[in-house]
Amino acid sequence: MVKLLRKDDWLRAARLALLQSGASEVRVERLAQDLRVTKGSFYWHFKDRKELLELLLREWEEEFPQIISQAKGRRRREAMQSLLRYVVEQVPLGEKGMLPSDAAIFTWASVSPAVARRVNRAEEKRLKLLKQIVGDSDLAEILYLVWLGFVARGKRVPGSRKRFPQIARTMLKLVAPEKTRARVRAVRKI
Questions:
Q1: What residue ranges do the domains of the chain occupy?
Q2: What is the pTM (predicted TM-score) of this model?
């Protein structure tokens, strides 16, 4: 029986190879081996390896509008809650190859100047959004650096990824502490 693969099957295999082994291992032969099929199906969906790599990078770049939609038109705390909830939900999907993974893309950018330029542009947009949400450039950068640290550590210590929901709650407290603001208002009234 011939196994019929969809384009998404190849993309998932490519995302996993990128995450686990880097861009150099996103090769048609390896993906076919991982999927237990011949290479022919690949060429039905993609012109070549270069097209696949471009698609992997583009889908990561295009993830940003989804991120923005989580925060649009909301107050600071609500925007951060939505944004962090979105990230908490997306991280496991990236680790399973269902979505692009920041860890995979950042690792790729560290060895490819062309990819690094595109990642840098995308990060500028992310930082701009964070600044709009939190209202402070330095705090936005700190939050983003926390995310980058989480991504880097999660690659080395996979078990640490389980703590991200708690880390996200702590980030939210830093950005929009509910009780602290109430206490400050009470002290100002004295």
A1: 7-56, 62-176
A2: 0.83
Residue 183, pLDDT score: 44
pLDDT tens-digit series, residues 139-167: 889 888 988 888 888 878 888 888 888 88
**Which CATH code of 1.25.40.20, 1.10.10.60, 3.40.1190.10, 1.25.40.10 fits the domain covering 7-56?**
1.10.10.60
Q: Residue 2 to residues 36, 38, 71, 148, 169: CA-CA distances in angstroms?
A: 11, 10, 45, 42, 48
Please report how many Cα atoms fall inside a 13 Å half-sphere around the Cα of residue 8, on the Cβ side: 3
Q: Which residues of the chain have pLDDT under 70?
A: 1-3, 178-190
How does DSSP assign 82-95, residue by residue?
Answer: HHHHHHHHHHHHHH
Distance (Å, whole) CA 78 – CA 153: 27
What are the tokens at 33?
């081996």
